Amino acid sequence: MPYQEKNGKWRATKMIAGKRKTKHFATKAEAKKWEARQSSEDWQKEEETPTVCWIDFLTACLDHAKERFSTRTFNEKKLAFKRALAVIPARQAVEKTTVAQAMEIMRSVARTSSGNAANKARKNLCAAWEWGKLMYGLSPVNPFKEALRMPADATPRYVPPEEDFWKVYDACERQSDRVLLLFLLHTGARIQEAFRLVWSDVDFERRQIRLGTRKTASRGMEYAWIPMTGELMDALEEHKINSRTLNVFVSQAGKPMTHRQHFMKQACERAGVQPFGFHGIRHLTATILAHAGLDLPSVQAILRHHNPTTTARYIQSLGVQPNKLDVIFSDKKRSAKVSSFSASE
Questions:
Q1: Do 106 and 172 share a structural domain?
Q2: Contacts for 161-164: CB closer than 8 Å, 24+ residues apart
Q3: Model-level pTM greater than 0.90?
Q4: Residue 200 DSSP symbol
Q5: How confident is the model at residue 34, as a pLDDT?
Q6: Residue 172 falls inside a structural domain
Q7: Is 223 helix (H, G, I), strand (E, B) or coil?
Q8: 291: pLDDT confidence band, cut at 50, 70 and 90?
Q9: Are both 327 and 217 inside the same structural domain?
Q10: DSSP 3-state of 36
């Protein structure tokens, strides 16, 4: 028989074959219903098939993601999980999830946001289920993988014209920011790779730069050496003269950079060009290399894509020519000149 505790909640208790279970409820009626529903058969099934509910499962997924992924990826997963819980009961056993429920989540996201957002949620929930197969022994049948993608409009990433890049380059107020932009253009590096760069990663003698990324299957740091153009080497050598830190790119306070949230937007406004971001420069690098006739494996090596199809999405057509980065990046039409670099900010 349920009884009320000091905190106002009702405690239900059930004893079957010497085993005792108890649970709290807001009302006495709910507690009595729970007691009446308990049976030895249900308890036996629970013991044979351990289950995890969605709220606990997704919380564990987020804890895992926080340790292994970037803040941006973590927030993307968090949003997808929040949208899932708007459809699936938080206390429902994960194993009981159906393809129909997976489709309902996607429809819900498509209605409130877009087809692209729905497909992104599907991707993250599908990955969560795959992780759950390892950690919780979930069914091999992934309901989110079985669910059909929602119709979505293609939204190609904006790649700035090369002239606009140099306008932004010239509009930079700090010389170190110009070096950063030149570095991104000549290496195709991701911005976080630039922020992590330390001087020991720059080999002036062999004209190489070592870049580290966590965009790998193991999520551990993976390094690769890529060639350094003569123009970039001269720029970095002069930049190093004024450097007093281990990191190559630092803030005005002399601390390692972790983000430049409004830098590109403000620089584009000063230059009077359509806004583009740091990753747009990476796409521009791929475009320049492709137009110069660099072969696909060489472009893939510079961009450090594990899958050549990823590189192919960056560029539409490639010729086959020798890998001559200095020739590609020293076109006389480009306005940046190393001689214009000033030793002072």
A1: no
A2: 162/284, 162/288, 162/334, 164/268, 164/271, 164/273, 164/274, 164/276
A3: no
A4: G
A5: 82
A6: yes
A7: strand
A8: confident
A9: yes
A10: helix
- Are 18 and 106 in the same domain? no
Domain count for the chain: 3
- What average pLDDT does the chain have? 83
Choose between 145 and 44: higher pLDDT.
Answer: 145
Cβ neighbours for 343, distance < 8 A, ≥ 6 positions apart:
238, 241, 242
Query: Which residue's entry shows tokens 């720059």?
Result: 202
Concatenated DSSP letters of 97-122? --HHHHHHHHHHHHHHT-HHHHHHHH
Cα 302 → chain centroid: 20
Distances in whole angstroms, Cα of residue 303 to Cα of each of 269, 300, 320: 28, 5, 17
Whether 64 is covered by a domain: the verdict is no
For tokens 């946001």, the residue is 113
**Whole-number pLDDT of residue 1:** 78
Looking at 86, 113, 146, the residue that finishes a domain is 146
Does residue 21 or residue 244 have the better pLDDT?
244
Instruction: For the chain, count helices (H), then strands (E).
Output: 16, 6
Together in a domain, 173 and 141: no
pLDDT in tens, 154-193: 667 788 999 999 999 999 989 999 999 999 999 989 898 9
pLDDT above 60 (res 327):
no
331: domain CATH number? Answer: 1.10.443.10
Q: What are the tens digits of pLDDT across the range 65-104?
A: 888 887 888 999 999 999 999 999 999 999 999 999 999 9
Query: Within this chain, do residues 31 and 84 fall inside the same structural domain, yes or no?
Result: no
> 111 and 215, same structural domain?
no
Query: Residues 215, 170: contact at Cβ < 8 Å?
Result: no
Lowest-pLDDT choice from 49-58, 114-123, 290-299: 290-299
Q: What is the pLDDT of residue 322?
A: 35
Cα dihedral sign, 35-37-43-48: negative
Residues 6+ apart with CB under 8 A from 82: none
Same domain, 237 and 101: no
Structural domain boundaries, residue 17: 3-40
- d(Cα 215, Cα 83) in Å, to the nearest integer? 25
CA–CA dist 63, 77 (Å, integer): 11
